[in-house]
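User: I want to check something. If I give you two sequences, will you return the structure for each one separately, not as a complex?

Assistant: Yes, each is folded on its own. Here is the first sequence with its structure:
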Amino acid sequence: MSTPFRQFQAFHAIIQRGTVTAAAEHLGISQPAISNLLAQLERRTKLKLFERTRGRLVPTPEATVLFDEIDTVVRGLDHVNQAVFDLQNQKAGQLQVATNHALAFGFMPSEIAEFSKDRKNLTIAFQSQYSGKIQEWVTAGLFEIGICEMPVRQEGLTQQHFHFETLCALPADSDLARHETLTPRLLDGYPFIVMGTDHMVSRRLREAFHSEGARFRIRSHTDLFLNALNLVKQGLGAALIDPFTLRSDDRSGYVVRRFEPSILLDIVVVTATDRPLSAIGRQFLDQVVPRMAAMAVDDAARSRDPL
């Protein structure tokens, strides 16, 4: 014998809310409708579920046993209905985003916090990793959105490109801090902390020094812009730092100057070409992409301050 779920739901609401009136309000139906559902349930089950005592419905022992059995089911359906509502209003689901380390220390956590503020049921998968691994993750479907450095070496990725001007960080007590703009000639022989010799910023910086006939002196190699900045704070030398790392730092112990010629960091937002973005993913990119674009530079605006 099958029993329509609505009858169980009415019965559950009466016990949970205490009165037919409160149960009707909870389910959004009339009092006669909920009384009718209860009568149908008693006829179907051939059980007396309530006694009326002093104008109130008192559950019978049979009703107590039945309530315990259906409580999990009814609550489960309520959660399903809420999840459907949240998904329809982009307030639930999962945000899956992986970024390079530069964005992970301040920019991306701030964006995620703002995005999730009115989405209490949103779950978040957020990782920072090296760019090649991020591309592999998005291709494999482990993450929906990837933000990484160029080049893109994986097939099947949709790409949005951005270019960000790096700035030169110097120890606060450096004599070179008196200059508003630094050049390879001014920094001839000055110790540098670089992001590995093959990194695009290091390679472009080395080429800039070579073009002006200045000596490019490497004091230290590291794998993160944040590491390079911390070494600058300790007085080990200068470093070109991306705007995201500078924004998330307390700006103490060093000074920042523009470097000419401009050295750019190329960033790309990648998603899988063969999988549609979720509504949550689209909403998140609608928030983040314009803010990244506002910090980026183009050929007509290289002199704009990215900070």
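And separately, the second sequence with its own structure:
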Amino acid sequence: MMSEQVYLDLCRHILHNGQDKSDRTGTGTRSVFGHQMRFDLRNGFPLLTTKKVPFRLIWSELLWFIRGDTNIRFLLENNNNIWNEWAFEAWVTSDEYEGPDMTDFGLRRLSDENFAEIYDQQMAEFKRRILTDEEFAAKYGELGNVYGKQWRAWKTTEGETIDQLKNVIESIKNNPDSRRHIVTAWNPEDVPGNMALPPCHTMFQFYVHDGRLSCQLYQRSGDTFLGVPFNIASYALLTHLVAHECGLEPGEFVHTLGDAHIYHNHFEQVEKQLARAPGPLPAIKLQAPEKSIFDLLIEDVTIQDYDPHPGIKAPVAV
């Protein structure tokens, strides 16, 4: 339970001590700059219990990254909708789109029920076409050089590619005491125009000690209520998987945040969550322990003994 408490303490800290700021989405945030949380993975898997967090969405997104995929089709095939809005925005702002005006759909659907219904219809049609039309999916399901591309096929000035994830695993196996076990998603050349969304979790580093693998993530920007619980679980899971691949046990996940913020329209939900008592943390189960991390399927990783409080809905700022 102590692992989850550091997250709840961050939420309280932002609410009580944060600075109110404007933001890219127009929603407004309360934020702090520079915060670190530590999760000892020996004490359980840090999937929040004070609200239900959908593990399958976390795992399918992480698997998408590990595969080096950057098209939402794989996510939709696994009923994962968390990247839809960024692909949808590219579609509705294209010359080929002839449907209803979707300008500022992220905010308008929160305040206009009639528009929200129209938006839902257009999104459903968009998803249908991504899943059934390969040409459409290739053009409008593609998010550009986001995480998976940078992890698995970083493009060099020589036109070659670097598989950062594969290289760091080999480095951990062959030179465990190295201080260079680093994967970065922040590519200054691609950030301005070749990514649907510049990476929020920008760089992670592994550390080996006493047969255990630890991971530290630097995250430039964290939506503390909606996004950060996903990030905690995703990188804790990545630590488990890389540790297993390297014949190590998981150690700590260290989460370092730049701008840690709560959106103004999430305050009520955060207060509701803070009123709840944390429960015992669940455990990760590898259903196919003989498989390489690069060969895993959705069904190969599951969560055990997860008994959270009910989920708390909140709008996503796009």
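Because they were folded independently, the notes below concern the second chain alone. The chain is about 40% helix and 20% strand. The longest helix spans residues 113-132.
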